[in-house]
């Protein structure tokens, strides 16, 4: 007797959303662009809503993350995580280590919200990152990095 799997069974995610979130977050905490990209779909979209253009595709995302990690030093303060059938929302605070022009270092805190959609294969299909614009602008202005 031959057993075949339906397309839905064949594309069932291998990790629960909380487990996928945990693995994904490890990639961000350890600054591992390859791990982050490996959890994204080939055609995924990453959009940091700070006025920049969305990043399309796994390879472009890997490069984008490497550039972010090289440019900024930040850590996370975890907030709420809310899970739906195919998505999660994650409130967090970015804690940035910055320096004043001609002055000493300072720490900036910027509230963030991630909205992540997962496809049927259990890959991140889209990540939208919403930033508290006033907090980010104030931090970057103090550091002389305002756009």
UniProtKB/TrEMBL annotation:
InterPro entries: NTF2-like_dom_sf, SnoaL-like. It holds the Pfam family SnoaL_2. Residues 23-126 form the SnoaL-like domain. It comes from the Bacteria. Transmembrane segments: none annotated. This is Nuclear transport factor 2 family protein. The lineage of its organism: Bacteria, Pseudomonadati, Myxococcota, Polyangia, Nannocystales.
């Amino acid at each position: 007797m031959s057993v075949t799997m339906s397309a839905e069974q064949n594309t069932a995610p291998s990790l629960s959303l909380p487990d996928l979130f945990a693995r994904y977050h490890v990639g961000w905490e350890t600054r591992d662009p390859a791990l982050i990209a490996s959890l994204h779909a080939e055609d995924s979209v990453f959009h940091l809503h700070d006025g920049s253009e969305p990043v399309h595709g796994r390879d472009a995302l890997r490069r984008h993350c490497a550039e972010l990690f090289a440019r900024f030093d930040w850590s996370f303060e975890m907030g709420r995580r809310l899970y739906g059938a195919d998505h999660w929302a994650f409130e967090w605070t970015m804690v940035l280590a910055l320096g004043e022009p001609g002055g000493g270092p300072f720490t900036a805190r910027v509230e963030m919200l991630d909205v992540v959609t997962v496809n049927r294969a259990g890959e991140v299909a889209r990540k939208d990152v919403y930033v508290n614009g006033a907090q980010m602008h104030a931090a970057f202005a103090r550091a002389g990095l305002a756009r």
